[in-house]
Amino acid sequence: MQRSDTDPRLMLLAPGDSVYVLRDQIAAGETILVQGREVAIPGALGLGHKIARAALAPGDKVLKYGAPIGSATRSITPGDHVHTHNLKSDYTATHTLEAARADAATHRGTKS
């Protein structure tokens, strides 16, 4: 159910979720409503990205579709973009591109 005090581009997938999912783009610098609170969006956000519905403290579980998808790595306020800069996945180990390349280089040339 869509709240009238929340931007219609934000979709709540399950009642207990701590994030909204974008169903459209939001431009950099735009101000949107998140549960009656005006929030300035500093950078452009695309379809499928997550916006915090409620305040989260470091270590708090982030819920999407009613299930935990990760833990907050720092304080998140309502309306903040929730992504790899402030969320540690519960499902996928966090790797940097450089680490993946280093691992590939280490294994290059070895025969199985």
Relevant terms:
112 residues; mainly beta; 4-stranded antiparallel beta sheet; 3-stranded antiparallel beta sheet; 1 helix
Distance between the termini: 53 Å
Supply the number of helical segments.
1
Strand order of the largest sheet: 1-2-5-8
Rounded to the nearest angstrom, the radius of gyration is: 17 Å
Shape: globular
Question: What share of the residues lie within helices?
Answer: under 10%
Describe this structure in words.
- This protein is mainly beta.
- The chain contains one helix and nine strands; from the N terminus they run βββββββββα.
- The strands form three sheets. Strands 1-2-5-8 form a four-stranded antiparallel β-sheet, with no helix packed on it.
- Strand 3 and strand 4 form a beta hairpin.
- The longest helix has 11 residues, at 97-107.
- It is globular and about 55 Å long.
- The mean pLDDT is 87.
